[in-house]
Amino acid sequence: MNKVKARFAPSPTGFLHAGNARTAIVTWLFARHHSGRFLLRIDDTDRERSKTEFEEDIESSLMWLGLAWDEKARQRDRDGRYREVIEKLKADGRLYACYETPEELSLKRKTQLSRGLPPIYDRGALKLSGDQKKKYESEGRRPHWRFKLEHRPIEWNDIVRGAISFNGTDLSDPVLIREDGTPLYHLCSVIDDVDYDITHVVRGEDHVSNTAMHIQMFEAMGRTPPAFAHLPLISDIEGGKLSKRLGSLSVRELRDNEKLEPMAIVSLLARLGSADAIEPFTRMQSLIDSFDMSKFSKGAPKFDMEELLRLNARIIHETPFEDVNVRMAKMGIPDLDENFWLSVRPNLSRLDDIREWWRVANGPVDPVVDDADFAAAAAKVMPPAPWSENTWKEWTDAVKTATGRKGKDLFMPLRKALTGMDHGPELAVLLPLIGPEKALRRLNRRAAA
Question: What CATH number is attached to the domain comprising 419?
Fold first, then answer.
């Protein structure tokens, strides 16, 4: 497969959400696997809803996920090119003017449905005379323009769904130009795919019927259509329609609120719906090398937030210190060394969890000592330095012998004295990081250290 070029074409009408991120990830991996190029195309034909803040979010989210693009294009910059193609299609008789109002079209559809017929446009506009058109325009009507489909089979071999077939007689001629003269998504998308030499289009299965129309549009422009891969839409964990919460789950929310690792999201979405096992990846190259579009199935994959959280934890557990030291410095955690990172890393679910470990280990902590005699007895049998992860067991065994306490009555007072909390990080790991000096001060409540 030579000269692969794929594109991701989001509309900047909202923040980049998980479903679109999956399409971007799969498209990017496909292009990179074949040593191809990746185009980011901003589909902003909807001028009212398209916002700069959403375009910026799309870019920042893609970069955070590690999906750098080779080229970028915006549809709003290409009006002149669209006009050029529109005039050519009009001259060729493939675009024709229609004057029906929305109310008239709605009535036609209702009439067809009441007769048990499919709601396909009847091409009534093709029967209008020049005088009738002039009359409509004198009444203030402005035409919308439809693409005249050829009534013949439309077939392609979809990379995901296999052989797909439509017939032009079963499809309505799509509206490509609004009454105000602005072109719609379908036309602009096909023109862009032609001009930017797109070889493969990856998108959701909700575009399958659109693709049938687009194929004839490519052919009307004298171009062979690209290859298509229609991914099934993501379902919720029960297999039903994705809930509103997950459906609107944005990449920025996963990044800023959930504080997840980008590779956790990429690891999940890159293989969701594929025959390949979902596993944690810490390097993009491994995913690129193993990527295979043919392994995606037609069944709706299930998005499981718990699975994403598990992947995130496993990735954190494999992350070396040099990959997080700068990030932790930006989090305001000073002088954090590799020993501390390696000590607490197996107990983290998110990188942000390290804040609590650092605070408890280094202070300030307000010790809770309910029984001063017990604390004093524990202090007397505290093992000498150096401390290791075995120190906690050695110490609690000695305290048990000295005081006769066991179970919760033994462990909880020590935890509250050392950390100021009745829950939190494992003390077997935490105790060596606190150290003898701070541990003694906390047991004796001499300072909030």
Answer: 1.10.10.350
Q: How many other C-beta atoms can be found within 10 angstroms of the C-beta atom of residue 385?
A: 10
Continuous segment of H or E residues that includes residue 157: strand 153-158
* Same domain? 340 vs 352: yes
Whether residue 342 lies inside any domain: the answer is yes
E strands within 44-143?
Answer: 71-74, 95-98
Burial class (CB in 10 A: 0-12, 13-18, 19+), 65: buried
Measured CA to CA, the distance from residue 356 to residue 419 in angstroms comes to 10
- Parts of the chain with a pLDDT under 50: 243-247, 447-449
Into how many domains does the chain fold?
2
Listed residues 361, 391, 423: the one ending a domain? 361
**Whether residue 356 is found in the same domain as residue 370:** no
Q: pLDDT by residue (tens digit) across 21-31?
A: 999 999 999 99
Structural domain boundaries enclosing 439: 363-444
Shared-domain flag, residues 439 and 386 = yes
Helix axes 408-419, 391-403, angle to 10 degrees: 120
Residues in contact with 172: Cβ distance below 8 Å, sequence separation at least 6, in sequence order: 119, 120, 121
Query: Does pTM surpass 0.85?
Result: yes
Question: Where do the H-state alpha helices sit in 205-353?
Answer: 208-220, 244-247, 251-256, 262-271, 284-290, 305-318, 325-330, 338-344
Q: Bridge partners of 203?
A: 230
How confident is the model at residue 336, as a pLDDT?
87
Helix (H, G, I), strand (E, B) or coil at 40: strand
Structure tokens at 130: 């020049």
| Type and span of the H or E element at 176 | strand 175-177
> How, if at all, do strands 153-158 and 162-167 pair?
antiparallel
For residues 247 and 204, the answer to whether their CB atoms sit within 8 Å is: no
